[in-house]
Description:
- The chain is an alpha/beta fold.
- The protein has helices at 5-15, 21-33, 40-52, 67-75, 89-101, 116-119, 140-150, 176-189, and strands spanning 57-61, 81-86, 109-113, 128-133, 151-160, 194-199, 205-210.
- A seven-stranded mixed sheet has the order 3-2-1-4-5-7-6, with helices on both faces.
- Helix 5 links the parallel strand 2 (81-86) and strand 3.
- Helix 2 packs antiparallel against helix 5 (89-101), helix 3 (40-52) runs parallel beside helix 4 (67-75) and helix 7 (140-150) packs parallel to helix 8 (176-189).
- The longest helix has 14 residues, at 176-189.
- It is globular and about 45 Å long.
Amino acid sequence: MTESTPAALIAYAESAIVEDDALIAARARATELGAEAVSPAVGALLALLARATDARAVVEIGTGTGVSGLWLLGGMATDGVLTTIDPEPEHHRAARASFAAADIPPGRTRLINGAPAEVLPRLTDESYDLVFVDGPRIDLPRFVGEAIRMLRPGGIVVVHNATANGAVGDPERTDPITTAARDAALLIADDDRLLPVVIPLGEGVLAAAKAR
């Protein structure tokens, strides 16, 4: 192992994933709008976790242009419904175009235009198989708390950019974003019902499974 080995492994993990035309077009929309999108390897991880849980009810915090939504839908059960939340109307328009280009039936997506902090408390307890947290990083603790509440037993929460670009491991970093990432991680670590793992893909992923 050399110092360059971890970077080389991550680069290989990303390059090993081939996206279809619908995903490529969704990424182009994200670039045009300046919206962040998950990397191909993170998208593949989302699809894998959705398939592993036989997910039929998924919540996504941060719709963007539908890149992560397409990956989630690709792993979900064929009758599964993705509820995706974003406050930006232009993101919803772009995501609808992305879903239509992938021939996703309209009944399989529920797009909610609103602030996640206001929408999430209205979603039902223990009713979702997977919750993907990809909203404003300063609100990660609040989003993670809501996700844990909403997860059914055996469900999975996935937090994107959970490491604040690697800053969580630096004790001298006390800025609000890093602190929020630490607090979110502690919420998961301190919950005996959750089995967590940090996955070094994309900008850092924290996933945790709720006990059955």
